[in-house]
Specification:
Elements lengths: L12 H16 L8 H13 L3 E3 L8 E7 L4 E7 L26 H17 L6 E8 L7 H7 L2 H5 L4 E11 L3 E3 L8 E10 L3 E2 L9 H12 L1 H4 L9 E9 L5 E2 L2 E10 L2 H21 L7 E8 L6 H15 L4 E3 L23 E9 L1 H10 L15 H22 L16
Parallel strand pairs: 3-4, 3-5, 5-14, 6-13
Antiparallel strand pairs: 1-2, 2-4, 6-14, 7-11, 7-12, 8-10, 9-11
Helix pairs in contact: 1-3, 3-11, 6-8, 9-11
Length: about 425
């Protein structure tokens, strides 16, 4: 029988101090997707100092895998993201981003500090567990391309397939709480599309001699949003967002093309297929109505499958987290149309699935939460310029959650996980 460690409510003071310092350094120096070289170097230096063996530059990106072997036992992978967002920070914090126009507005700095803190805790308590710990630092999660690149590059062929994958994500919930899925999807699947509408350019004084793609695009934006408002059942939970529209250079020149980027989110692949086809139909109709010189182009630039945690593993870890943090701090998560590309590393091409445990980590300060609840307003959420996690509550909870979950798996072994059977929706 493997050893089992006693519950811990938070890491020791010295380890927590190191995790806070790491978080502050990451938050001050955010890097965009695919360019997280300094972020990866900072994390790999810390993990190497803890005794982990680091494999950098995976798939030709800043992604890395750190490994700690500690005798026979299961292989457990902790995943953290590395990238920040093109958002100008407006928190006013003394440790705010020092990089103009770039901010850790989604909490990936918190995830990285918590995962590294968990690695530190596990490295310091090797007598309490046996197995193989992997920590994956993943580049380009925000663009939904990083995990797929790692899968295509043969991550598991090179380093072995883990018995379970663990991850968490910052959320606008009370700081220090965790929220688990209740048996179904936790996050939606998504498609990112780029559309080009072709027009015929000309002089603003002679619009009758042109075919204005900007007008086509403006009409299309309005019509596209009816696809979820009027062609989708409300209970389906689908979301369509037109994120960018680019056209033209001067007020007196009618351009010859307009480019839109769109995001589709839904909880089934069938719904995503239907929405994508409807987008094509609307764009084609607007082009034809405007007598465009050519049909529109529609390209899928990124996609992510629906994220559904393993229900057996989730139930087990919910109990583990309640034991370590208290039952009152372990909540039920509502399925979210937010997206995440980690499923590319848990739903494999051969149709099998690696058991995944994924939970939400509350970050909203208690005073902010209480005031917002009393006044009936929302709190600053992910991707907002004023998103500011309560570090004192969220970071210790995140470290403890990952550490306790990993120890449970190391103690009980993969037989207790309850792996998914082969899936007909294998990773594309």
């Amino acid at each position: 029988m493997r050893p089992v460690a006693a519950p811990e409510t938070q890491p020791p003071r010295a380890e927590l101090k190191a995790a806070v310092e790491l978080y502050l350094a990451l938050h001050r120096a955010p890097e965009l997707s695919g360019a997280e070289h300094s972020t990866a170097a900072l994390l790999t230096d810390r993990l190497t100092a803890l005794g982990l063996t680091v494999h950098p530059g995976l798939a030709g990106t800043p992604s890395f895998l750190a490994e700690l072997r500690n005798g026979p036992g299961p292989t457990v992978l902790l995943r953290t993201e590395l990238d920040a967002l093109p958002v100008t920070e407006a928190t006013g914090l003394p440790y705010a981003s020092a990089v103009p126009g770039v901010m850790h507005a989604c909490g990936h700095d918190l995830h990285a500090a918590a995962a590294t803190g968990a690695a530190a805790r596990l490295a310091a308590t090797r007598a309490d567990w046996q197995g193989r710990l992997l920590l994956l630092g993943q580049s380009a999660e925000e663009t939904l391309t990083g995990a797929r690149a790692l899968a295509a590059d043969g991550l598991y062929e090179r380093f072995g397939r883990p018995d379970a994958v663990l991850a968490q994500h910052a959320a606008p919930l009370p700081a220090g709480t965790l929220a688990h899925a209740t048996g179904g999807p936790l996050m939606a699947g998504s498609r990112t599309l780029e559309a080009v509408l072709h027009g015929r350019g000309g002089h603003a004084a002679t619009p009758h001699l042109a075919a204005d793609p900007l007008l086509m695009a403006a009409s299309a934006v309005v019509r596209l949003h009816t696809l979820t408002a009027r062609e989708t059942a409300p209970a389906e939970g689908a979301v369509l967002t037109v994120g960018t529209l680019h056209a033209g250079t001067r007020a007196n020149v009618i351009p010859d093309r307009a480019t839109l980027s769109l995001g589709l989110r839904a909880f089934t692949e069938a719904a995503l297929d239907r929405l994508q086809e409807a987008v094509r139909r609307v764009l084609a109709a607007e082009s034809e109505a405007a007598a465009a010189p050519g049909p529109p182009e529609l390209t899928v630039t990124a996609r992510s499958p629906v994220l559904t945690p393993d229900p057996d593993l989730t139930a087990a870890l919910r109990a583990v987290h309640a034991e370590h943090l208290g039952a009152g701090r372990v909540l039920a998560a509502v399925p979210s149309p937010a997206t995440e590309d980690l499923t590319h590393l848990t739903r494999l091409a051969d149709g099998t699935r690696i058991p995944l445990a994924y939970w939400m980590l509350g970050t909203t300060p208690a005073a902010t939460w209480r005031a917002a609840t009393a006044e009936g307003r929302t709190v600053p959420a992910n991707h907002a310029s004023d998103f500011a996690p309560d570090l004192r509550q969220a970071l210790p909870a995140g470290i403890t959650a990952l550490t306790a979950a990993a120890r449970h798996l190391f103690a009980d072994g993969p037989h207790a996980v309850g792996a998914f059977p082969p899936s007909p929706e294998a990773a594309p």
